[in-house]
Amino acid sequence: MHREKKHKGIAASQGISIGKAYLYARKQVNINTMNISDEEVKAEIVLLENSIEVSLKELSKIYNISVERIGEKNSKIFEAQIEIIKDKIFLDSVLNRIKTENRSAGFVFNDETEKLGQIFLKSENTYMHERYADIMDVKNRVIRNMKRDKLVSKVEENAIIFAHELTPADTILFSRRKVQGYATDTGGITSHTAIISRALRVPSVVGLKMISRQIASGDTVIVDGFEGVVIVNPTEQTIANYTKKQEEYKNHELLLVNVLHKPCETLDKKRVEITANIEFIEETEFLQSCGDCGIGLYRTEHLYMEKGDFPSIGEQIEDYTHISNITFPKKVTIRTYDLGGDKIYKDNNYKELNPYLGWRGIRMCLDKKDIFKEQLEALLISSVKKNIKIMLPMIASVDEVKETKKLLKEVKKDLDGKGVFYDKNISLGIMIEVPSAVLMAEELAKEVDFFSIGTNDLTQYILAVDRGNDFIANLYQQFHPAVIRALSKVVEAGHNHKIKVSICGEMASVPLAAPLLIGLGLDELSVLPSMFTEIKQTVRAIKYTEAKELVAELLTLPTEKLVREKLTDYFNKKIKPQII
Ligand code: PEP
Ligand code: MG
């Protein structure tokens, strides 16, 4: 009987899952390095052939799932892996060595794939390094199959995924298998894996450091996405405790539904708009559970990710029109491509040492004008219902806004020339997520129709703390005095120029942050669909006049610890008692 063990990480997506672990890893398997007898050679050849066949079947299955979910181009990695094990010359040399050297199939296959891999590893080229990883993946799969280690190579339904690291593509791929939870060694609260798991409403814990080395597929595990804890081999008592917690959470969610059709306003009737952040079109099915709210942030990067390339104008029009239709009569704020940084952008000729400070968001769009204009055109063509707002990411200067406005004007002129109908007064807003934009907020406010604060990036840039690096996750302080002072400055600048200020960073989805954000005077909170009702209920429990006084005090405090303490104290005394 294994002993119960608790691992502490970072809570990335709320909820509790109890189930069986599935380890997504390159697992080391023992290989027989001894010489074998002539009689055994025959059996080893059969073993090799069988495991190749099984591996091929597995890979084609994974390839199909991948194509369905993220498109053909993004699935090339699996095609490449299939090619490796189908390579006749390679396989012949493995068979030959088994026979002539009297070695086990595992030993020779390992040796040959390592030799092949080294050729790629020696290369300076990143693409070649990726090929090395492909070869090692294939090696592990085939050798695992020789050991009939089924659990590791098969993606089980309803499993809780454990991995050293998950790319956004892994997360999407696994999501098809009714995944019940994610737990990873790496990642921070705003890494995209964390964001996607929240969007999928799947409990997850990231930044567990060594968990992938301390777990085996099939282990019973509990993922507590509230506390950021993973419990491996829980005792019956622990399972019973967590099952109770799970039930309570479900009941809590049911009770929250009560506020669904009540107005989004504070106790003293200050209206605050609450909208949803949408990253994938599938998430729009949650909109109904949010009382058919508007969308405060629609990320368009998924169009690129799914295709592995920029989508055509037709594909974009289809997507934007669809989102406009399902949100109507409420508004949808569509953000133009924010590729680069933590968001996948594959260009084998292009590598950056500091992608977060590099060619991302609006910078890339303004350099790829044809692609950017095509996106603006698609947005305008899709705006017939007049409920689309355009939002630009990563704005760092007034020039970027002016340049975009010039492009938008050109696109509008072209459409006018063609007699195409579109929303002539379409709103153009910007994300405030770079410190220079905070400092230039007064000037920027004169140029645009709205601001939306992206606290995920703003916090990382103000504090110089990588949002995805769990080693410094404790320094990523969302209530740091510098961050809240920046928020205050942006709201003030926006309101001075009579434009609305919203927040679409993860902070908007944190109930504890609600009194701060309301007191600061934010007009709109764009939250994760899974947090919608909870935030709404929290807002309805706040008195705006009181929150304003609280914020005036918070803005004088010198440390995040003090801000958090004051906020928690207020939350526990004034808000909690009103929330069921
Ligand atoms: C942000 O930076 O806060 C934001 C909402 O954008 P993203 O997380 O997509 O970078
Ligand atoms: Mg951002």
Describe the structure.
This protein is α/β, with parallel strands linked by helices. The protein has 3 domains: 5-26 and 152-235, Glucose Oxidase, domain 1, CATH 3.50.30.10; 38-146, Orthogonal Bundle (Enzyme I, Chain A, domain 2); 266-579, TIM Barrel (Alpha-Beta Barrel). It contains 22 helices and 16 strands. The strands form 2 sheets. Strands 1-8-7-3-4-5-6-2 form an 8-stranded mixed β-sheet. It has an 8-stranded parallel β-barrel with strand order 9-10-11-12-13-14-15-16, surrounded by 4 helices. Helix 8 (192-199) links the parallel strand 5 (181-184) and strand 6 (204-206). Helix 1 crosses helix 5 (126-146), helix 2 crosses helix 5 and helix 11 runs parallel beside helix 13 (369-381). The longest helix has 33 residues, at 38-70. It starts with a strand and ends in a 5-residue tail after the last helix. Bound molecules: phosphoenolpyruvate and magnesium ion. Residues 393, 433, 454, 456-457 line the site of magnesium ion. The site of magnesium ion (MG) has 5 residues, from helix 17.
